[in-house]
């Protein structure tokens, strides 16, 4: 059933208090719920409709009396009280559920013998009968009873107010959460866990106990998570003045979890992949992800929990804002430019493709069949990112327009107005606007209009008039259900770089018949933010004495595709000189995209591929420029991904794009062999592993050099990579050398892969890396190996991380996924059907590989369509998969 934003209605009944009691046992769990209900309007006589799925109703009482069969209606999804009392009343239900057979991992389920919950978005209805919607905010207590030896630790939200023993070897704990919350933030954990404890003293002097819970053997791997949590708590105080509001903060790591983590009030539950780390087992990327996700979930305490969403269409209100906050946190803890590059790459790799497919939707969708499908972005294929990149970009634009102090003012007003409420994206917008008395024109379109805007720029220098003009024209492409679009308000940060490589100071711009002053505190600026709002418009800078090269969209000031008339010479100039480091990187990317596209067309015409010598020189000068940040260099010499190139082609051609990318990599490795070898040698270190930018940057540069070299099939390089593999003292270096060796099939590759498994088979997170590396290999016919791995003892289709590693990993190889014999599609079709019976959320994240089937040639289209039709014909398909498959087949 499709749900529409325009149909939102306030609930007829609110819940005041919710008292829950769980008796957990091996066969079944009984949930007692006592809710104080009151009507929104006095004297209301509307029926009370409760959600409930897979629940066995044992008892139902109103004001203490068991209801008669005629007074309620129960079906597969709802429990309806036809005539509840007018005025306040208590509703008591007793339900039976079966966590041990719950493979969907939503609601209450078991992971490695422990009980845990996941309620967002709509999992609470699998626990007990409830109005499962975020605008129902209530105060909760939760009593848990369970066997004491099997489940020594019993956790829920808020404060522990009572605990003790009960007969039969059981014990209990009672938790009370003093804050009102929607049910999606409810959590319960029961199991054999130990904690790493620490404390944090808030700036107003509250002493908070911090506890990270894991099975005992994993405790040593929680040090980095604890460091991250304390850093996040401090950062939120420093940057936003936001303090933690309880005396206890719990984090629990579980190994079976659909996504990354969950911000349940004071009891965050995490996929262990984004908590556990040690230098020997986790890479730099893992460390950085953990920092970001721990921050993210912690930041939700204010943006999400204290102020929550009115309905699920407002998801971006909390996710966009919280992703933005975690991005800023990570930037402040590491390198801002490098973080920005990583985030923009995420937008291009995961968000833009979605905008081009049948699931394209605005930041605030107009409708959904299954809300879980709108937790988009990278999180759909790996738990390491939360997604909502575009929502975060929208929040970032407020900051770009208002400046940091103005943005802070807006945040302060937002909390002042809405603490304890369930609100909408407009409420956030209004707070930002009102706090700054700002004119945001039609900025709200960013929430309602889908599709990636394309902004064209034509530049001109008038040497006579000493003026420089930028002419913009924008197009927002049609998306399903939105054929015609309005022009958007696009903030474009611009600087003009003079022939000496320095920014030209700007003090005014002529626009719309007016001369606007753009100074700051009376001083000219190097960068100004142009407000592009029309289909076509021009901005003219005057008093520009020499012809500049424009640096447009500095810092990626809006989530759009930019199409400028800059020449290759201009781009090489920016690559070498732009004071905006993001745009320096971007200039290199634009050059690489152009180069790749032109080689793709050569390849398709069967012409010999030749690498442009100027490009080679550009890469060489970046690689050898010791004044640059090493991680920046690593990013700058990384070619755009194959998916990114396919997205800008009329008809996506995975074979051509792969051949071209491989060709350029090999050419660069051949021509710059000595430089790459030196880079590897000069950036080794035998020091102890440290998580800091300098060390990570050094490793990043060394390992990208090794990756380039690994593309050469050559004995000296194999020896080098083997040496790196054997001498590595941390997983970052060890895995990078393994990956370098993985590129070429043969005996060495087989041996080293076997050795790695041997070494790490006891550590499931490392084994997942091993699965994913092999699965994503571009070696022709790798599908056979992937099928074999399905039967490997290390694989288990019920565990999402393993599915994301092996099956998701396979999708990482564009050539093998889109193999022209249809073998990749057939495999994915089979997997989706198997997964859907176990875990619809995981199945639907896998089925998205088919959603853009129309982007390929006819042969591939027919093969993919056949799989979609095969899936569609299946009986008992989940709503999750149904939504994506039906929308994919509907595109004409
Ligand atoms: N709110 C979570 C986070 O920010 C996302 C988890 C959503 N899970 C789901 N099954 N829909 O990390
Ligand atoms: Zn989130």
UniProtKB/TrEMBL annotation:
Annotated keywords: Aminopeptidase, Hydrolase, Metal-binding, Metalloprotease, Protease, Zinc
Domain Peptidase M1 alanyl aminopeptidase C-terminal: 568-890
Limits of the Aminopeptidase N-like N-terminal domain: 62-185
Peptidase M1 alanyl aminopeptidase Ig-like fold domain location: 451-564
Domain of life according to the entry: Eukaryota
Keyword Hydrolase appears in the UniProt entry: yes
Cofactor: Zn(2+)
Keyword Magnesium belongs to the record: no
GO biological process per UniProt: proteolysis
Gene3D superfamilies, alphabetized: 2.60.40.1840, 3.30.2010.30, Neutral Protease Domain 2 (1.10.390.10), Peptidase M1, alanyl aminopeptidase, C-terminal domain (1.25.50.10), tricorn interacting facor f3 domain (2.60.40.1730)
Domain Peptidase M1 membrane alanine aminopeptidase, first and last residues per copy: 226-440
EC number: 3.4.11.14
Record field: catalytic activity: Release of an N-terminal amino acid, preferentially alanine, from a wide range of peptides, amides and arylamides
Molecular function terms from GO: alanyl aminopeptidase activity; metallopeptidase activity; zinc ion binding
Family: Belongs to the peptidase M1 family.
Name by which UniProt lists this protein: Puromycin-sensitive aminopeptidase
Organism name: Erythranthe guttata (Yellow monkey flower)
């Amino acid at each position: 059933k499709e749900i529409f934003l325009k149909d939102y209605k306030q609930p007829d009944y609110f819940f005041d208090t919710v008292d829950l009691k769980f008796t957990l046992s091996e066969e079944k769990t009984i949930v007692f719920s006592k809710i104080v209900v009151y009507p929104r309007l006095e004297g209301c006589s509307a029926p009370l409709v409760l959600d409930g799925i897979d629940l066995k109703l044992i008892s139902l009482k109103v004001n203490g009396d068991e209801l008669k069969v005629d007074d309620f209606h129960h079906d597969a999804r709802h429990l309806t009280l036809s005539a509840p009392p007018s005025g306040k009343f208590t509703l008591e239900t007793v339900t039976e559920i079966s966590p041990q057979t719950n493979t969907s991992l939503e609601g209450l389920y078991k992971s490695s013998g422990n009980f845990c919950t996941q309620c967002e978005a709509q999992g609470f209805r699998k626990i007990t009968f409830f109005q499962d919607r975020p605008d129902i905010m209530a105060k909760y207590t939760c009593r848990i009873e369970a066997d004491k030896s099997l489940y020594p630790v019993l956790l829920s939200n808020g404060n522990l107010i009572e605990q003790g023993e009960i007969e039969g070897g059981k014990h209990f704990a009672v938790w009370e959460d003093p804050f009102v919350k929607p049910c999606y933030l409810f959590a319960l954990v029961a199991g054999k866990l130990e904690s790493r404890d620490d404390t944090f003293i808030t700036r107003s002097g509250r002493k908070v106990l911090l506890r990270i819970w894991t099975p005992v053997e994993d405790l040593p791997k929680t040090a980095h998570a604890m460091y991250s949590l304390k850093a996040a708590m401090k950062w939120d105080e420093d940057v936003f003045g936001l303090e933690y509001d309880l005396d206890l903060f719990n984090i629990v790591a579980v190994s079976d979890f659909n996504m990354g983590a969950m911000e349940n009030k004071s009891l965050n539950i995490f996929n262990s992949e984004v908590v556990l780390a040690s230098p020997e087992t986790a890479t730099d990327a893992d460390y950085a992800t953990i920092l970001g996700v721990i921050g993210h979930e912690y930041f939700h305490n204010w943006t999400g929990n204290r102020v929550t969403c009115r309905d699920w269409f407002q998801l971006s209100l909390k996710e966009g804002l919280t992703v933005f906050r975690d991005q800023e946190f990570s930037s402040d803890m590491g390198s801002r430019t490098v973080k920005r590059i990583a985030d923009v790459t995420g937008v291009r790799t995961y968000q833009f493709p979605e905008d081009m497919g049948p699931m394209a939707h605005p930041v605030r969708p107009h409708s959904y069949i299954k809300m879980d499908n709108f937790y988009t972005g990278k999180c759909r294929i790996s738990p390491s990112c939360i997604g909502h990149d575009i929502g975060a970009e929208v929040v970032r634009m407020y900051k770009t327009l208002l400046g940091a102090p103005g943005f802070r003012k807006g945040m302060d007003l937002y909390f002042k107005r809405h603490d304890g409420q369930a609100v909408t994206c407009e409420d956030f917008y209004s707070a930002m606007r009102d706090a700054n008395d700002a004119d945001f024109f039609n900025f709200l379109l960013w929430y309602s209009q889908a599709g990636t805007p394309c902004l064209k720029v034509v530049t001109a220098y008038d040497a006579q008039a000493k003026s420089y003009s930028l002419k913009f024209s924008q197009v927002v492409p049609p998306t399903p259900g939105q054929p015609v679009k309005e022009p958007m308000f696009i903030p474009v940060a611009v600087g003009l770089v003079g022939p000496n490589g320095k920014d030209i100071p700007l003090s005014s711009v002529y626009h719309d018949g007016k001369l606007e002053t753009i100074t700051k505190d009376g001083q000219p600026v190097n960068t100004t933010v142009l407000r592009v709002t029309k289909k076509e418009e021009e901005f003219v800078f005057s008093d520009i004495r020499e012809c500049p090269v424009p640096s447009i969209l500095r810092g990626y000031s809006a989530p759009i595709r930019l199409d400028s008339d800059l020449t290759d010479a201009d781009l090489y100039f920016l690559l070498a000189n732009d004071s905006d480091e993001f745009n320096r990187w971007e200039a290199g990317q634009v050059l690489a995209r152009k180069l790749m596209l032109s080689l793709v067309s050569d390849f398709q015409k069967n012409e010999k591929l030749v690498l442009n010598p100027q490009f080679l020189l550009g890469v060489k000068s970046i690689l050898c420029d010791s004044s640059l940040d090493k991680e920046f260099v690593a990013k700058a010499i990384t070619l755009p991904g194959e998916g990114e190139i396919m997205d800008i082609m009329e008809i996506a051609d995975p074979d051509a794009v792969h051949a071209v990318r491989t060709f350029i990599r090999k050419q660069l490795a051949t021509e710059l062999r000595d430089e790459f070898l030196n880079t590897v040698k000069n950036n080794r270190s035998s020091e102890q592993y440290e998580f800091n930018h300098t060390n990570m940057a050094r490793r990043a540069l060394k390992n990208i050099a090794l990756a380039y070299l690994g593309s050469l099939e050559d004995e000296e390089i194999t020896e080098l990579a083997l040496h790196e593999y054997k001498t590595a003292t941390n997983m970052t270096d060890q895995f990078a050398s393994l990956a370098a060796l993985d590129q070429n099939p043969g005996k060495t590759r087989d041996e080293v892969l076997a050795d790695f498994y041997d070494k790490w088979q006891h550590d499931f997170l490392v084994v997942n890396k091993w699965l994913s590396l092999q699965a994503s290999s571009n070696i022709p016919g790798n599908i056979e190996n992937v099928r074999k791995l399905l039967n490997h003892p290390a694989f288990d289709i019920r565990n999402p991380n393993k599915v994301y590693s092996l099956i998701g990993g396979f999708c990482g190889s564009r050539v093998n996924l889109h193999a022209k014999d249809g073998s990749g599609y057939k495999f994915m079709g089979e997997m989706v059907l198997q997964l859907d019976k176990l875990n619809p959320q995981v199945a639907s994240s896998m089925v998205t590989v088919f959603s853009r089937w129309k982007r390929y040639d006819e042969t591939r289209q027919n093969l993919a369509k056949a799989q979609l039709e095969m899936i569609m014909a299946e009986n008992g398909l989940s709503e999750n998969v149904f939504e994506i498959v039906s929308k994919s087949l509907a595109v004409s």
